[in-house]
Here is the input.
Amino acid sequence: MFGYKPILCYYERNLDEKNRLNIPLSLEPEEDDEIYFVKEDNHLTVYSCDTLDRIFKVMELQMQNALGSDINLYHNLANEMSFLSLSILGKSTIKFSSGSCRITIPADIAKEFNLKGNLILRGLYDRLAIFNGEESYKEYENKVKYKKRS
Here is the structure.
């Protein structure tokens, strides 16, 4: 999903009454690609199955390397891996219909994040973040800018 180039985009999209969200074809999605919804601070993040697998494999390799030399690093990585695993809320597949591409956000996830109406989609290199409107996106943007400065 999302091709093999960085996702550096910003889009406004509406979530319909069936929790379907049109995503840009420029992200190079493929029909029936599996995606995972992951809970972040104030937004929902969409990972392709390949990206999430790659993240877990890198973490496992780092844990193996740390096991013999730095037990604290090993435990920190194990905790990060557990946290990421617990943050996975569900999955879906990409569908094409009438020349557009869409994902369906499971109802329980849409409810938990109070997703409705105008949403902000923001590319974060290898994943797609979904924000519940401009205010939520600005909050995230300010947090990232502040974190970068400190």
